[in-house]
Design brief:
It contains 5 helices and 2 strands. The chain has a two-stranded antiparallel sheet.
């Protein structure tokens, strides 16, 4: 019984790690046009919260450069 519990917990952890890393630019850009729309961003609630701040030119899209600002802010 314990080995099944450990297996189940391991699978849950692996699933959560996969979800957490599933917010790369390419993954969010579902139509592969090189831009992330607000609709595409909706899969990541934390991205939705900062979408307007990251969209520095106000065109309603995030480019790779704009999206990469998240990593720069997190490193600071």
């Amino acid at each position: 019984m314990n080995k099944y519990l450990i297996l189940a917990l391991g699978l849950c952890l692996a699933h959560n790690v996969a979800l957490a890393s599933d917010t790369s630019f390419d993954t969010l850009d579902t139509n592969a046009d090189g831009l992330i729309t607000s609709g595409e961003a909706e899969v990541d609630p934390s991205l939705v919260e900062v979408f307007g701040d990251l969209d520095v030119n106000g065109d309603g899209f995030l480019t790779l450069a704009e999206y990469s600002a998240i990593e720069t802010d997190e490193e600071s």
